[in-house]
């Protein structure tokens, strides 16, 4: 039974997170599509932590080299994704000056 | 330590979700990315003491980690700060590609570990996920690099046609099949040598590049969005391999929202995703456009200014041509003068104005145009009939009435802005050339249309002068 639960919990996560992704983007006005695409691009920059774990466990020089590349690319994704998105969103201002 | 990591990853996932939610509204969008940013920093910091690393600490790896983060972060930070707003789409593409590459790298390390049997032996289903993530991530990586090259208009990528050849789809299919078969062999056969793994990655990278190479620049946004979804999926798959919940949640959310966004973009362009990927624009439509009658009637910027100054409502339709001419600042300056004269000014944005949906909004925002003056096509299309002047700047196909009536036109069926319903239409255009789709625009020949020829920035300056001269 426990094995079945262990098998199914990722499937539940898959379903719920999938619906959530759909819900988040469905309510976004077109004017925010480019920044939002950029924002989701930043979010998958979390790949950085996986690359860190992979590099941390690397033993052979080849594994280290690939792990190094992975962390470098992951950091680029996270940092670049953040600043590009922030720069775009920074510019959205209302004529009534009620910007937060 | 496990509890600390899991708690922080949970917090990160929550911050990502709330952050994306806040990005869904202009007033809270800025804080949304900041929230998500906090999540990322938290997750990265605690990952230094991840149990999977601290179980067998190799100090040299920590040094490598810090150096890699410093180099990758610094280059990306510099690029993100320096890039002009018109180049945003290709920057998103390249950062996305990096994420895909990182996911593929994780898979490579995991597969090599398996090969060297330094780790605990994972089951076949884990290896299958690793291989699937590697394939998708590698495709996203090489495809995004090609997309970047195309949008950046690098010489090598300039000519789309040179990358099109007969039997292309069969070749691509062969490469893809080869990668899948090798991937299955690696996953099922637990004791593989390094050669099939290397070959597998080469084929996956080749497929990504081959997929993106023949696609034209105008279709690129859809492809970039698709690769964004791919990277999300790859990250989720590698998250399952590593048992990393933050990667799983974030990856799936990006995968599903990215897929949905891709479909929405394709729909706005009146194309299906399959159509974008597997057919050439030139092959669409019979090309026998309807006969266009009438003549082009030029107008001076100063006269155009007078017409607008005495109007009660002006709707401005900006296109990518305005952005290329960097005219948005001047245009906004002109709008402010009009608004001082109690003219109602609104901006109408077609879904594919700019280089991707919403890109034009970003460009207008950069010039200082408040977002509540900017309207989507559905919101404003009815209003054109009440407008005294519709001013079209550097847009062409998105205002071409042939999309409504001419079945033989390549753009037939594409929703367009009803500019032709306005009392007067002014079109700022550099020359007499046809639009991207290569077809004449009947709007330009209509009785109530006047053409204002010249560089958009200079024309706008002329209009500003014209309004000021009225006193």
Secondary structure tally, helices of chain A: 4
What distance lies between the first and last C-alpha atoms of chain A, to the nearest angstrom?
51 Å
Classify the helix fraction of chain A into a percent range.
Answer: over 70%
Which descriptor suits the 3D outline of chain A? Answer: flat
Order of helices and strands of chain B: HHHHHHHHHHHHEHHEHEHEHEEH
Q: Describe the sheet with the most strands of chain B.
A: 6 strands, parallel
Tally of separate helices of chain B:
18
- What kind of oligomer do you see? heterodimer
The spatial strand order of the largest sheet of chain B comes to: 3-2-1-4-5-6
How many strand units of chain B? 6
Average residue-wise pLDDT of chain A: 85
Mean pLDDT of chain B: 86
Low-confidence stretches of chain B: 281-289
Largest interface: A-B, 83 and 120 residues
Unreliable parts of chain A: none
- Gyration radius of chain B, rounded: 26 Å
- What order do the SSEs of chain A take from the amino end to the carboxyl end, as H and E? HHHH
Beta-sheet strand percentage of chain B? Answer: 5-15%
Question: Can you describe what's shown?
Answer:
The complex is a heterodimer of chains A (100) and B (471). By secondary structure, chain A is an all-alpha fold. In chain A, helix 2 runs antiparallel to helix 4 and helix 3 runs antiparallel to helix 4. Chain A is flat and about 55 Å long. Chain B has 18 helices and 6 strands. The longest helix of chain B has 29 residues. With 471 residues, chain B is α/β, with parallel strands linked by helices. Chain B starts with a helix and ends with a helix. About 2% of the residues of chain B have low confidence. A 6-stranded parallel β-sheet of chain B has the order 3-2-1-4-5-6. In chain B, strand 4, helix 17 and strand 5 form a beta-alpha-beta unit.
């Amino acid at each position: 039974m426990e094995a079945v639960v262990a098998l199914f919990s990722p499937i539940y996560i898959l379903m719920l997170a999938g619906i959530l992704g759909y819900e988040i983007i469905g309510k976004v006005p077109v004017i925010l599509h480019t920044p939002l695409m950029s924002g989701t691009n930043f979010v998958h920059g979390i790949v950085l932590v996986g690359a860190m774990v992979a590099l941390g466990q690397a033993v052979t020089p080849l594994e280290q080299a690939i792990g190094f590349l992975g962390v470098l690319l992951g950091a680029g994704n996270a940092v670049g994704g953040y600043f590009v998105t922030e720069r775009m969103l920074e510019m959205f201002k209302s004529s009534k000056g009620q910007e937060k | 330590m496990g509890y600390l990591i899991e708690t922080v990853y949970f917090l990160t996932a929550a911050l990502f979700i709330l952050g994306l939610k806040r990005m869904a509204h202009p007033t809270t969008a800025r804080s949304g990315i900041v929230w998500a940013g906090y999540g990322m920093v938290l997750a990265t910091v605690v990952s230094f003491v991840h149990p999977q690393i601290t179980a067998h600490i190799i100090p040299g790896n920590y040094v490598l980690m810090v150096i890699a983060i410093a180099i990758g972060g610094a280059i990306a930070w510099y690029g993100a700060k320096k890039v002009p707003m018109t180049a945003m789409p290709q920057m998103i593409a390249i950062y996305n590609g990096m994420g895909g590459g990182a996911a593929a790298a994780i898979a490579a390390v995991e597969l090599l570990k398996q090969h060297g049997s330094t780790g605990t032996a994972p089951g076949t289903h884990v290896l299958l996920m690793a291989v699937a993530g590697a394939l998708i991530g590698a495709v996203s990586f090489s495809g995004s690099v090609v997309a970047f090259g195309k949008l950046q208009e690098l010489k090598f990528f300039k000519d789309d046609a040179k990358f099109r050849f007969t039997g292309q789809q069969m070749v691509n299919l062969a490469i893809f099949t080869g990668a899948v078969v090798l991937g299955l062999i690696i996953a099922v056969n637990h004791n593989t040598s390094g050669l099939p793994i290397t070959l597998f990655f080469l084929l996956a990278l080749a497929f990504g590049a081959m997929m993106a190479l023949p696609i034209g620049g105008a279709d690129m946004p859809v492809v970039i969005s698709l690769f964004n979804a791919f990277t999300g999926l790859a990250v989720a798959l590698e998250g399952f391999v590593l048992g990393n919940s933050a990667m799983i949640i974030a990856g799936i959310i990006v995968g599903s929202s990215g897929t949905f966004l891709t479909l929405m973009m394709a729909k706005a362009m009146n194309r299906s995703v399959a159509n974008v990927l597997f057919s050439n624009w030139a092959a669409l439509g019979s090309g026998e456009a309807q006969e266009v009658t009438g003549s082009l009637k030029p107008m001076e910027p100063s006269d155009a200014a007078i017409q607008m100054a005495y109007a009660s409502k002006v709707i401005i339709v900006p296109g990518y041509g305005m952005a290329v001419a960097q005219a948005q600042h001047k245009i906004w300056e002109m709008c402010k003068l009009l608004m001082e004269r109690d003219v109602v000014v609104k901006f109408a944005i077609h879904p594919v104005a700019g280089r991707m949906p919403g890109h034009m909004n970003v460009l207008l925002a950069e010039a200082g145009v408040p977002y509540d003056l900017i309207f989507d096509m559905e919101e404003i299309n009815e209003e054109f009939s009440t407008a005294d002047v519709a001013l079209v700047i550097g847009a062409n196909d998105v205002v071409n009435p042939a999309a409504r009536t001419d079945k033989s036109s390549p753009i037939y069926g594409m929703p367009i802005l009803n500019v032709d319903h306005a009392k007067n239409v002014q079109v700022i255009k550099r020359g007499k050339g046809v639009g991207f789709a290569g077809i004449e625009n009947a709007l330009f020949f209509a009785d109530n249309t006047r053409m204002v020829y010249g560089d958009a920035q200079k024309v706008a300056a002329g209009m500003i002068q014209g309004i000021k001269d009225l006193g």
